[in-house]
Write a structure and sequence with these properties.
The chain has 216 residues and is α/β, with parallel strands linked by helices. The strands form 2 sheets. Strands 4-3-2-1-5-6-7-14-9-12 form a 10-stranded mixed beta sheet, with helices on both faces. Strands 8-13-10-11 form a 4-stranded antiparallel beta sheet, with no helix packed on it. The chain has 5 helices and 14 strands. It folds into 2 domains: 2-134, Rossmann fold, CATH 3.40.50; 142-212, Thiamin pyrophosphokinase, thiamin-binding domain (Jelly Rolls, Sandwich), CATH 2.60.120. 23% of the residues lie in helices and 33% in strands.
Length: 216
């Protein structure tokens, strides 16, 4: 089973979410992500958060459907997103698709990436897809990923740990063979697909690969 998290950030691909929901998924709405779910006609399995950015009428709608709510105080030591990731682990889900962590609150985006890194580094989950906007997908992983796209699509490789070592790329313009990327460097930014699918394999660390697809 793959999990889906819907948060309240503005930048993500609605069509990609609707396409993904053609398959069975375990859906968690994070606080104001409930508003987006309502707009798309999505019935989540769980709604979590402090409810500080929720439309009251939409909350009432889901409460009448007997959707499970897990409510937390506004003042707490973990973000709603962090708590939702813990729920994913509780459900023994190893792969998650994330919508709505990117938006005008850059602090929330950076904080969420740190949480994702932690859960993957600690092997609590194996893989995360992140929608950053229309045709923009991030992949966070610790072993390998395959990305389908078009020739000349941009793929950037960004380390989320201090170092990512043993990086080998296939079908990317700038080749790495057992290479290393460091958190404070920028060498992995802006590579290009030469043949689809491209793939990236790593030996140690956590890597974020962002694919900018050409949207027609």
């Amino acid at each position: 089973m793959i999990g889906i998290l819907i948060a309240s950030g503005e930048y993500w691909d609605r069509e990609a979410l609707k396409e993904e929901l053609r398959e069975e998924r375990f859906i968690i709405c994070i606080d104001g992500g409930m508003n987006f779910a309502y707009e798309l006609g999505i019935i989540p399995h769980l709604i979590i958060g402090d409810m500080d950015s929720v439309n009251p009428s939409i909350r009432d709608y889901y409460e009448k459907l007997n959707i499970l709510f897990k409510l937390y105080p506004k003042e707490k030591d973990k973000t709603d997103f962090h708590l939702a990731m813990e729920e994913i682990v509780e459900q023994d889900i190893k792969e998650v698709s994330i919508y709505g962590i990117a938006g005008t609150r850059l602090d929330h985006t950076i904080g969420a990436l740190g949480v994702i890194r932690k859960f993957i580094r600690e092997e609590k989950i194996d893989f995360a897809h992140i929608s950053f906007g229309k045709g923009i997908v991030g992949y966070v992983f610790r072993d390998t990923v395959s990305i389908s796209g078009k020739t000349s699509d941009i793929v950037s490789l960004l380390p989320l740990t201090e170092k990512v070592t043993g990086i080998t790329t296939y079908n990317l313009k700038y080749i790495l063979e057992e290479g290393t990327l460091e958190l404070e460097e920028s060498m992995g930014v802006t590579n290009e697909i030469t043949e689809s699918p491209c793939s990236i394999r790593i030996r140690d660390g956590v890597l974020l690969a962002i694919h900018y697809a050409r949207v027609t």
